[in-house]
Specification:
By secondary structure, the protein is mainly β. The protein is built from no helices and eleven strands.
Length: 114
C-alpha cells in the first residue's frame, strides 16, 4: 500500500524560505507524476507544482520563480523549495503522487506571518 508522508511545514516570516519533503513508500515502480498541492482555509485545494518522471514541471502562476519542485526517484522522495514566502502562501501542503491512480499525503501546515 502506497503511503506519502510530508515533513517540513512550520511557521515562517514573510520573505523567508522553507523546504518541504515527502517520502513515498509501498510502491515498486516510479510514479508518473509527483508534486504538491495546497489548501488554504476556506478555499479549494490547488496545484502548486508537479514534476513528471520525464522531468516536465508545472507550476501555479502564483509560485513561479519562487518555488522549485524536485524529486529523487532512487529514494522515492519529492521536495518543494519555497523562497520569498508570502502570507498568501499560508496553507496546508499536500504531497501528491500518481501512477494509474492518485495518492495523497496527510498534509503539512505552512504559516507565513507578515
Amino acid at each position: 500500500q502506497v503511503q506519502l508522508v510530508e515533513s517540513g511545514g512550520r511557521l515562517v516570516q514573510a520573505g523567508g524560505s522553507l523546504r518541504l519533503s515527502c517520502a513515498a513508500s509501498g510502491s515498486n515502480f516510479a510514479f508518473n507524476a509527483m508534486g504538491w498541492y495546497r489548501q488554504a482555509p476556506g478555499k479549494q485545494r490547488e496545484l502548486v507544482a508537479i514534476k513528471t518522471y520525464g522531468g516536465t514541471t508545472t507550476y501555479a502562476d502564483s509560485v513561479k520563480g519562487r518555488f522549485t519542485v524536485s524529486r529523487d526517484d532512487a529514494r522515492d522522495m519529492v521536495y518543494l523549495q519555497m523562497n520569498s514566502l508570502k502570507p498568501e502562501d499560508t496553507a496546508t501542503y499536500y504531497c501528491y503522487a500518481q501512477r494509474i491512480i492518485e495518492y495523497w499525503g496527510q498534509g503539512t501546515p505552512v504559516t507565513v506571518s507578515s
